[in-house]
Known about the structure:
About 40% of the residues lie in helices and about 20% in strands. The chain contains three helices and five strands. A three-stranded antiparallel β-sheet has the order 2-5-4. A two-stranded parallel ribbon has the order 1-3. It starts with a strand and ends in an 8-residue tail after the last strand.
Amino acid sequence: MTQVHAHNVLNMLLAAETPYTRESLTQAVVAEYGEDVRFHTCSQEGLTLDALLTFLLSRRKVVQDGDTLQANPDRMCNH
Length: 79
């Protein structure tokens, strides 16, 4: 199982030319890291993508506008 930092997902969202939906982000993450990937943050580890998105949305590090997801750079930590 691959462990990836949440910043990688946030950076994918920031770099996207077209905003991701949950479905398209899931497809991109699976293509990049595989289906068994788990994520960690500064305070949590072993998160699925769904759990990570729930966490990031609750912290307003990711915002949802209709069907699209966008990283909120003002809420991202810089380490």
